[in-house]
Amino acid sequence: MKNLASFLRHPAGVIGLVILTGVVVLAIVAPTLFPVDPWDMVAAPFQPPFDGETWLGSDMLGRDVAACIAYGARVSLLIGVSSTLAALAIGVTVGAVAGYFGGRVDDFLMRFVELFQTIPGFILAILLVATLGPSLTNVILAIGAVSWPQLARLTRAEFLRLRSREFVQAAVCQGQPPMSVVLRHILPNAVSPIIVTGSLMIASSILIESALSFMGLGDPNLMSWGFMIGASRSVMRQAWWMSVFPGVAIFLTVLAINLVGEGLNDTLNPRLSRKARGA
Amino acid sequence: MTDEPLLAIENLSVSLPRGGDRQFAVENVSLAVRRNEIVCLVGESGSGKSITAHAVLRLLPPALHVAGGAIRFKDTDLATADEGAMRALRGGQISMIFQEPLSALNPLTRVGQQIAEAIVTHAGAKLYRSELDARVVELIAAVGLPDPPALARSYPFQLSGGQRQRIMIAIAMANEPALLLADEPTTALDVTTQKQILGLIRKLQAERGMGVLFITHDFGVVADIADRVVVMRNGCVVEQGTVDEVLRAPKNDYTKALIAAVPGGRPPTTHSQALGSDPLLEARGLNKVFASRQGAFRPVRRVPTVQDVALTLRPRETVAIVGESGSGKSTLARMVMRLIEPDTGSIDFDGVDFLKLKGAQLRAMRRKVQIVFQDPFAALDPRQKVGEAIARGPMTYGTPAVEAIADAKRLLARVGLKESAYERYPHEFSGGQRQRICIARAIALKPLVLVADEAVSALDVSVQQHILELLAELREEMNLAMLFITHDLRVASEIADRIVVMRRGEIVEQGETQSVFGAPQHAYTRELLEAIPGRSLFGRPHEPSANVCFA
Q1: What is the pTM of this model?
Q2: Going edge to edge, which strands form the sheet with B179-183?
Q3: B393 Cα to chain A: minimum distance (Å)
Q4: Rg (alpha carbons) of chain B, rounded to whole number
Q5: Residue B60: what pLDDT?
Q6: ipTM
Q7: Please, are residues B145 and B166 in contact by the beta-carbon 8 Å criterion?
Q8: Residue B375: its chain A contacts at CB < 8 A?
């Protein structure tokens, strides 16, 4: 409750939260707002925005740009959240094991993490989707697979810091088994920076997804913002609206998530935030 | 001693931000420091003694403001002087030394250069390089460091704690200050080093006729160094006067209580039952070498921390392990807890070889030896309720939750807290209360051995006394054997049956408390005893009435 109140005192965070809520609501009400399939032709092709039967114009095949953006919000948010969850599952587990056990286990796992970090993330994602086939699950897996090393390193650093703390040693002396020490004492004290990084990771996942769809590697059955920009790039000079509106949608969503993430950072890690508060 | 004060603080009040536990950090404080005298500002944590000293140089944290009063240095009012004038005074006419010399020195600059910087900052005319170097070497020699030209070229991390503090003093002396503010300058140092630093400050003060405002919490240090004493409590001055008046015939009740609480003066705690005869815990040949890798192709650095240590502990016995920092006493305690695995050796504990146990057997044995750590702020999980921290241990060993919770509440009451503390979080408690919680957590498992690792060192002296009393009571109630790790010989003398003196990982002397303190055999033990501050007033441990005349 105290955290919520102090988050609400953070203006940028509140702005981000408002925009993000807007995007989430749009994603939820998309089927009511636009009852037809976004892939269907509903108007003449190349209709400019703000006149005629569509709000934001129509594309080369007469699809409603506004409907596409609303349905695209569902895909973007779904992929953003689930690939971050996947990255959290892998990253936190690997980082926790490495940080808690240390020594050889840590050495081995960190070399493995570094292996992933040396491969450019986006190229690995392209490779994975191209090999496994463009489907929703594969896109989520590919994005998760390139995002987890960062979380693993963060979790490991937090675990290393906390595991030598006296309250953790006291728990060991109390006879608590390792699993209980990790779940009750180390993880709860490490969770704030993980939440912050995770929230920012949703934004970067959305960007990777858009880039994959732009290259035609998105799920072909799902309407996505990246796909819209990719498909309309050849007619950008005649029909700006086809790429600008989905572009604005990506921009606003990513910005909103980053603002919320920063607000969370200032709320949950007050000592690390840029604005030093009086002691 | 001239009568005209060098520094006069008159009715100084410093306000705290709203929502603090009191309105003023410092309220109506008046004190004076004359030329050629040392005034000790003494008080417990939160008494406002540091704030008062920081206010002199206007180094207050941003949330605190001088609300009233005047600070006169010579003819300047420091409370209203402009920033330019303050800059000229800081490090010039008024210098300050701090508690932690490692964080006060720049780690990336050679110490000679840091001293030179202090000179250059305040030099009116441009100095020649050779002149500056000569001055730096002279200052390093003045603070009693060996081979000044070589030392000037070293970095802070290459020096010991005492050497760093000497460098800090050299920096403070660089511009021949009239007034030196010393904020707990020896608190972070070992007792033998502390003695040297106090001697150095005394000597420099006498040579230069400086006024010194010396802040400390330790009445022993006060007795050794002060000409006059100011006692503070909760932001107010409760008593001031010459050192003899205040320490030998205190008028204020609080001062009396503080002086009475200095450990070592009270009779040692006694046992209601005889000690057991067969050893409960017997460690043999313990060795631990810490190895740190310094990169793939460089040799591993090995630091032997504990060397061939043997230790026995009988049922109900209290053994104090004393030594300075780096003597390996904490490592020894952690090896007994199996928080650190020794390289070699054995520990026979309650009939089994403790070091050979693994997994479930080890966990079953762990409950028999519990620990209380030094820092009560780090030893409790900030996200766990106090009661749960206590009840969790017995629950791990299969005690039903209802029973464990009832037990935890009973223990909280036993260590002197309210039962309602069960539902609260650690940050709601003071240091002394937290240490009580840590003790409750340790004894909840009904251990046979309690390890107290500097358990009272971080506490104020009056709180220290109560915690020691509590530990002594619990020892009798629960038939505990205690391994009491401390650097404070006075504390050790109050609680221990036997003393083990460690130096650089080895035991140099051990024996009954009376004989070790009464007739120390080893030169190092004698050195430690000599270095205890305030011996002239408080006497040696086990020699409560000191009638030595004041020098």
Answers
A1: 0.82
A2: B94-97, B179-183, B211-216, B37-42, B228-233, B236-242
A3: 5
A4: 25
A5: 86
A6: 0.79
A7: yes
A8: 166
